[in-house]
Each structure stands twice: as C-alpha cells, then as structure tokens.
Design brief:
It is an enzyme of class 6 (ligase). There is one protein chain. The protein folds into 2 domains: 4-101, Serine-tRNA synthetase, tRNA binding domain (Helix Hairpins, Orthogonal Bundle), CATH 1.10.287.40; 115-423, Bira Bifunctional Protein, Domain 2 (BirA Bifunctional Protein, domain 2). The protein is 41% helix and 20% strand. It is built from 13 helices and 17 strands. It has helices spanning 4-9, 11-20, 27-57, 64-101, 138-144, 150-157, 167-185, 199-205, 230-236, 293-311, 360-365, 390-400, 415-418; strands spanning 119-123, 148-149, 163-164, 189-192, 196-198, 224-226, 242-244, 250-259, 278-288, 315-319, 331-339, 347-356, 368-370, 378-379, 381-389, 408-409, 422-423. An 8-stranded mixed beta sheet has the order 1-10-11-12-15-9-8-4. It has a 3-stranded mixed beta sheet with strand order 7-13-14, with no helix packed on it. A two-stranded antiparallel sheet has the order 2-3.
Amino acid sequence: MLDKKFILDNVELVQKNCDNRGAKANVARFAELETNCRELQQEIEELSRQANVVSKSIGKAKDDAEREQRKNEGRELRESKDAKQAELDRISAEAGAIYRSMPNMTHKETPIGDEDASRELRHGATQVRPLGFPVQDHVDLGVQHDLIDLEGGARVAGNGFYFLRNEGALLELALQQYAIEMLVAEGFIPTITPDLARGDIVAGVGFIPRGPETQIYSVENNDLNLVATAEITLGGLYADQVIDEEQLPIKLCGISHCFRTEAGAAGRASRGLYRVHQFTKVEMFAFTLPEQSEDMHNYLCELECQFFDGLGIPYKVLDIASKDLGGPAYRKFDLEAWMPGRGDGGEYGEVTSTSNCLDYQARRLNVRYRTKGEKGTKFVHTLNGTAVAISRAIIAILENCQQADGSIIVPEVLQKWVGKERIGGGE
C-alpha cells in the first residue's frame, strides 16, 4: 500500500503512475472519498460526544418531562450517529477497494510500457554458442536418461506435475545445496519455510489468495493457502513486528515448494518443466532501512548473476517495463537464461527475478523498525529475489550442457553433489 497522505498530496502523480502500470484506479475518486471519510469520522465523534453529554444529564433532569426530552434528544443523536456510521462504512469500502488496487510507485529508470519495452541491462559471462548438432529439448533429454517422468506425475496429480528421477532428483538437491552454500557465505540466514500461509499474509505480500484471478491453491473450508513462493512466508515472518534498527538489514534465504495454478498457461513454450504446478525454489528476502533498499536490490541481482555464471549458463538481465511489474514492485530485474531447445532454434526464458518493493508490503504486513533514542516507528523496506527456481534451472542445464552423443555434462559446481561429471554417455 502507498502512504495515504502521499496519495492525497500527489493525486495527479499517483494517477499517472497507475496509468503507466496499466492499473485501473481512480485516484481522484479515492481522494474525494478519503476526504469525506475524515469529515464523517469527525462528525461521528462529535455526535458521540454530544450523546454522552446528554446521557449523563438525564439523571440531573428536574422532572419527568425534562428527563423524557433528554432521552429523546439522546436517541436522535445516536440515530444520527448510526446513520453517519453506515454512510462512513459504505464510503470506506469503496475507498478501500480503490486503495488496494493502486500499485507501488515506479523507479525513475524503469522503462514505461508493455513487456516489449523492458530494457536489456547485461549479459552473463558465458555467451550463447551454436551447439553444432541437432538440439534436443529438456523433455526429450529427460526421457532419454530417465530423469523426468511427466506421465507418472499426470497419473498421480494431473497435468503440470512430474517426478524427478535418478540424476534429475540429484540435480534438484545439488542446486539447492549450491544456492544455500553461496548465500550462507554471503550472510543470509538459511530457512526452510512452511508451504502454507494464512490469507492475510498472502494478501499482505501482494498475491490474491482467493477469487477468479488467483493463481493460488487454497485449502477448502480453511484460511490456509499453498504458497506460490517463499516470498510469502519470509515476508510474513515479521508481520506486526517492530525490528530494532541495528538488526537491519536482515537477509533470509528460504527453501520451499511453490504451488501455482498457472491458469491459462499453454503452448510449446510451456512444455515440460517450464510452467508447472509445483516446483522447489530457494528464495532470497531482505528487510532493510529505506536508504539501504536500492543497493540491496542491485546486490540481489548480482547474486543471481553469480549463480548462473557459476553454472556456465548464458543469460541476459532485463529491467522490467512498468506494465509488466507486479503491484508491490517498485523496480524489478529478470534474469532470462538461454534455452537451446525452447521454440525454434532456442529462446531466452525467465529463470529468476528480483524486486524492490520499498515499504509497500511492509505497510500491508505492518513491519516496522525503531531507531534507538527516537520516538515512534517507521516502515521497513522489503526486497525479494529468486536464487534458483529448480525446475527452470534444470531445463537450462540439460539443454545447454547436452553433447552430440546425447549425454549431459554436469556443471562443475554441482558435480560434488551429483556424484559424476556426465549423465549418460556410457557412465
């Protein structure tokens, strides 16, 4: 959420930002309603005060006629107050709906426009190179080496689920170990988070827990939801808490399963492991002081780049355009890895992202910090970043590291956990 005072003081600026991000929010209407709410609240408080005065005066009435008159006066004041309260509730509901639909403000360097306006920032240390032989995609390679069982997953849970087998399972565990080892060395606190979260936490982070637009699986007859990312659980960890300034920044990395309905996803680009209903992810999350968040955002992006440079996977980093940002993001960087078997002749596919959300999520979750010697508290800034979404990293590894004989070279940084240098090829 944005600061309401900021919105009221900058109606045109906030409306322009909503337009740039494709958000249908009538900021002027919100400002009008919010002003009315404040006026009504004052009127209600005054009517309540007057009713209390009249109520106390009833016992001091000189006779029954005066007592009855004061009772009637008190009744009229309470009825007027109740009518004002009903009006306030109606207006507040409309204002609240508009307020919740407003996205975060946008970084001055963020490209304005649709997805195509996203700006390329850099390429990885490994360059895209022709493989020099007919390329197989990860599905064919997975079947060939008994690494991925999509048919078995469909029998057990439906389309979009899968089994990882043999070195496929070992690759998943190796990628987790590689990510955690790297992040712990950088001072992140390793965590294994719940795979479920309450609806208020899911909504506070910025996801829609229920309704026709949700991408979240909900537990029937319960206020619990399967998480789409550990961003939800890590972000909710300090909900309604006050953190001492000396503790910031707090850097967490969380391992969780991620569950997504992926409604409407289809096509060859979504084949195999690229768009599935369940996968494992190692997520980075940071709580910072306001002045620390931009540097932290660049740092999280750099860690994502180091991770894929270590794997020897070609990639590019994009500064995501305004209309492709999620509501909480002030600025977002995506890392897209080269996938030789994707599309016709290879394509880049998103494998990680990192977002600076300023205090947008912190306001919704009520996460604050206190400065020693100062009165009051302030909202922290929150940031998230994918260290590795395992299923998509496996796609990039299988397709980029395949050899002419169909074998797959295991990236050197993963070999100690997989236990071999090559999958297939006689080993």
